[in-house]
Automatic annotation (TrEMBL):
It is found in: Nucleus. Residues 1-24, 376-414 are annotated as: Disordered. ATP binds at residue 79. Keywords: ATP-binding, Kinase, Nucleotide-binding, Nucleus, Serine/threonine-protein kinase, Transferase. Coiled coil: none annotated. This is p-TEFb-associated cyclin-dependent protein kinase Cdk9. Transmembrane segments: none annotated. Belongs to the protein kinase superfamily. CMGC Ser/Thr protein kinase family. CDC2/CDKX subfamily. The keyword Translocase does not apply. PANTHER family: CELL DIVISION PROTEIN KINASE, CYCLIN-DEPENDENT KINASE 9. Residues 49-349 form the Protein kinase domain. One of its GO terms (molecular function) is kinase activity. It comes from Periplaneta americana. Its main location: nucleus.
């Protein structure tokens, strides 16, 4: 799957090992002709699909809906691999995403069909474009939640959360962290099957016998879109593990009712402030060991905040079991946060109304709903496109001033 000329020569010399290295004997014209005609094994041409519409624009490239020309009916999603401009060869980040997607095969994880490429010609300076090709899902959760006509019943919300946690249970069992949980990365098919998507930031983790992530594995903590970022990452933890994804799951669960992200910080500091205002002050009493995290003394941590998760979410969520589960997911100390297994065993999923199929409700909507295609969720609200950016813009209409006003922050939590 290599792109640049030099590696292509290597591929050729590998496949015909007994020949003289062709790069030394071919002239430029011959090399170009060779590349144009090279028949990549296991990597079909992207022309087998016909693009229908653009459905996503991430920092990591564009996503298109496309039709399989062979069947003319089957739809796929094609995610363009963004090439490192200066560097030669296939980007390591894309390779990592592909390796992880090849490993993960589960009903609640997006299915990678294949990798496709465009032909290298003089018109693209002999650089192919590569695409990750996925089974097409009709909606993403951010798109669905931004449409006021889409109404989830309690049973349907349970079904969404049950599938999301099943997906997390599966990937964590396979020692993969998602690291970018957010509503836009949760896909839902028209049949109501939920698929975790966007493994662009995912990585493998190793755990010791006690299930703790190994001390010496120093992961970068610049991951997870700010609004869904857990306190341990905001405080510079580099030994984080599966709980980072369960914090995101809690944020998404609350959003099923509030319909917009519950903590929309503009900076890491502000995000921590919002978290403290909802989950209570970050202290060694509630979270032993927090004092040894790298940024514990560098960030300003609001003192004397009471935990108000249930109290503040109740007006939206109403169902007491749902409030209780949220309270157990949005826990500051990652070691006390519910894991996907405990969450799946929570009464929320085992009391009436039981989780119920989404396909009937979705059948009322014939248009695909994606974050990219949705109007901004609130006036003056920028789309939260990238992980490393601050986040959204202006305060929402539903803003509720709070005690933090004087520090220049406005509480924009639901
Ligand atoms: N299989 C799919 N079916 C339908 N839509 C998809 C599929 N995969 C991705 N999308 C859409 O494209 C969007 C972007 O895809 P993805 O999240 O994988 O890319 P990304 O470049 O990493 O995005 P970002 O950086 O914004 O998170 C998704 O939010 C979703 O709306
Ligand atoms: Mg994404």
């Amino acid at each position: 799957m290599t792109v640049n000329k030099d590696t292509n020569y290597n591929m050729m010399s590998n496949s015909r090992g007994n020949e003289t290295n062709p790069s030394t004997i071919m002239n430029t014209k011959e090399k170009e002709k060779y590349i144009e005609e090279f028949d990549f094994p296991f990597c079909d041409e992207a022309t087998k699909y016909e693009k229908v519409a653009k459905i996503g624009q991430g920092t990591f490239g564009e996503v298109f809906k496309a039709r399989d020309k062979k069947t003319n009916k089957k739809f796929v999603a094609m995610k363009k691999v963004l090439m490192d401009n200066e560097k030669e060869g296939f980007p390591i980040t894309a390779l990592r995403e592909i390796r992880i997607l090849q490993l993960l095969k589960h009903e609640n994880v997006v299915n990678l069909i294949e990798i496709c490429r465009t032909k290298a010609t003089q018109y693209n300076r002999y650089r192919s474009t590569f695409y990750l090709v996925f089974d097409f899902c009709e909606h993403d959760l951010a798109g669905l939640l931004s449409n006021v006509n889409v109404k989830f019943s309690l049973g349907e919300i349970k079904k969404v959360m049950q599938q999301l946690l099943n997906g997390l249970y599966y990937i964590h069992s396979n020692k993969i962290l998602h690291r970018d949980m957010k509503a836009a990365n949760v896909l839902i098919t028209k049949n109501g099957i939920l698929k975790l998507a966007d493994f662009g930031l995912a990585r493998a983790f190793s755990a010791n016998k006690n299930g703790q992530v190994n001390r010496y594995s120093m992961y970068t903590n610049r991951v997870v879109t700010l609004w869904y970022r857990p306190p341990e990452l905001l405080l510079g933890d580099r030994n984080y593990g599966p709980p980072v994804d369960l914090w995101g799951a809690g944020c998404i669960m609350a959003e099923m009712w509030t319909r917009s992200p519950i903590m929309q910080g503009n900076t890491e500091q502000q995000q921590l402030t919002f978290i403290s205002q909802l989950c209570g002050s970050v202290t060694p009493e509630v979270w032993p060991g927090v004092e040894s995290l790298e940024l514990y003394n560098k960030m300003e941590l609001p003192r004397g905040q009471k935990r108000k998760v249930k109290e503040r979410l109740k007006p939206y969520v109403k169902d007491p079991f749902a409030c209780d589960l949220l309270d157990k997911l949005l826990v500051l100390d990652p070691s006390k946060r519910y894991d996907s297994d405990s969450a799946l065993n929570h009464d929320f999923f085992w009391t009436d109304p039981m989780p119920c199929d989404l396909s009937k409700m979705l059948a009322q909507h014939t248009q695909s709903m994606f974050e990219y295609l949705a109007p901004p969720r609130r006036p003056g609200h920028l789309r939260p496109h990238h992980h490393h950016q601050g986040g959204a813009g202006a305060a929402g209409a539903a803003a509720k001033p709070s005690s933090s006003m004087d520090s220049g922050y406005q509480d924009r939590v639901f």
